[in-house]
């Protein structure tokens, strides 16, 4: 059987290539770079049917991974969907193009509360896509007590069952919030205190992970970890023992937005795709698929009307919850360098 597999795979690849050649795209293509599991991919065919533009789709796991890829060559992508603080950094480094909003009339459907935020104060470079919050997800059959604090991630009773984000901004952000500091602090002593806390945590971790948190928690391979509210609602369908909580110390709220990098070869197609994602029906389709909160206020009203109250509260954080959350801001170069140095030391 093993000898047959390469032949079958080669045949499947040939068929796929032939099919791609027959799938005409008279108006070219758009190359999209987005987070994993963060869109309803079925909408691509409808977009091509409506516009004649083919969607080429690639995924990343973190803002830092995306930034590194763009630093090597932004011409590979036409639409990228980074988070707030990374958008600010990329604007400052001249990595993003100003958008032509005459090509994005559906921008009018974006809730005013997500416009003109600190990361793009004049809304020249980005269009909000999805929003959400980070919380703790734990398995109630593996942890019997009610979890309310980030302290659970540093509790030796759960040694070998704890997951932690595998990037410095999120990991340090959790440690800082637990210690009572802003996730945007530029106080080096506070950052070093957070580093010391992460050092004490490292021996009791099962792993530093990103997207794998989803599978490990859903399957019961780990007992507790930080993750996103939207993903929790999907995980809950397969594992009703999981519980989501926003810790009492507060958390991170985020806005992910659509941008066009400098060097993009298909800017007009990129703006057409951004406009398409802002459509109400497409925003609803994406929320149905990924359970993150759209920035389209009409879509939120339509989709939210069908949710149970507990689901609504998880997916759409209220004002009191958001007031206890930080939105990451871009940090000065010296602080970014400190984060990078400490992260390398931590991961050794």
Keywords:
single chain, 348 residues, alpha/beta, D-Maltodextrin-Binding Protein, domain 2, 6-stranded mixed sheet, 3-stranded parallel sheet, 17% strand, disordered N terminus
Oligomeric state: single chain
Question: What is the global morphology?
Answer: globular
State the helix count.
14
Count of beta strands: 11
- CATH second-level architecture of the largest domain: 3-Layer(aba) Sandwich
Total tally of structural domains = 2
**CATH class of the largest domain, anyone?**
Alpha Beta
What fraction, in percent, of the residue positions are helical?
40-55%
| N to C succession of SSEs | HEHEHEHEEHHEHEHEEHHEHHHEH
Alpha-carbon distance between the two ends: 42 Å
Largest sheet, in brief, is: 6 strands, mixed
Low-confidence stretches: 1-22
For CATH, the homologous superfamily of the largest domain is named as Periplasmic binding protein-like II
How large a portion of the residues is in β-strands, by DSSP E?
Answer: 15-25%
Nearest-integer average pLDDT: 92
Give me the Rg, rounded: 21 Å
CATH fold type of the largest domain: D-Maltodextrin-Binding Protein, domain 2
Broad structural category? alpha/beta
């Amino acid at each position: 059987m093993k000898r047959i597999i390469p032949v079958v795979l080669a045949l499947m690849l040939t068929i796929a290539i032939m099919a791609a050649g027959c799938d005409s795209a008279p108006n070219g293509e758009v190359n999209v770079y987005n987070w994993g599991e963060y869109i309803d991919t079925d909408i691509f065919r409808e977009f091509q049917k409506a516009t004649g533009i083919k969607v080429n789709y690639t995924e990343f796991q973190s803002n830092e991974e995306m930034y590194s890829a763009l630093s090597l060559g932004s011409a590979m992508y036409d639409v990228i969907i980074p988070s707030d603080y990374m958008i600010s950094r990329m604007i400052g480094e001249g990595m993003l193009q100003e958008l032509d909003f005459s090509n994005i009339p559906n921008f009018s459907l974006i809730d005013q509360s997500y416009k003109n935020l600190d990361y793009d104060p004049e809304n020249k470079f980005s269009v909000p896509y999805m929003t959400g919050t980070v919380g703790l997800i734990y398995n109630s059959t593996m942890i019997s007590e009610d979890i309310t604090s980030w302290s659970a991630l540093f509790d030796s009773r759960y040694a070998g069952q704890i997951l932690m984000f595998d990037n410095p901004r999120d990991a340090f952000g959790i440690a800082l919030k637990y210690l009572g500091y802003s996730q945007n602090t530029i106080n080096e002593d506070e950052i070093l205190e957070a580093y010391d806390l992460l050092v004490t945590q490292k021996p009791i971790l099962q792993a530093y992970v990103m997207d794998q948190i989803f599978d490990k928690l859903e399957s019961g391979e780990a007992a507790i970890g930080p993750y996103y509210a939207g993903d929790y609602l999907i995980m809950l369908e397969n594992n009703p023992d999981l519980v989501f909580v926003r810790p009492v110390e507060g958390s991170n709220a985020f806005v992910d937005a659509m941008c066009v990098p400098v060097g993009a070869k298909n800017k007009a197609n990129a703006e057409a795709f951004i406009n398409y994602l802002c459509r109400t029906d497409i925003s609803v389709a994406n929320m149905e698929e990924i359970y993150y909160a759209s920035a389209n206020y009409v879509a939120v009203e339509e989709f939210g009307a069908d949710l149970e109250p507990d689901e609504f509260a998880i997916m759409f954080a209220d004002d009191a919850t958001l007031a206890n959350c930080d939105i990451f801001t871009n940090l000065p170069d010296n602080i970014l360098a400190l984060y990078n140095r400490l992260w390398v030391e931590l991961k050794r």
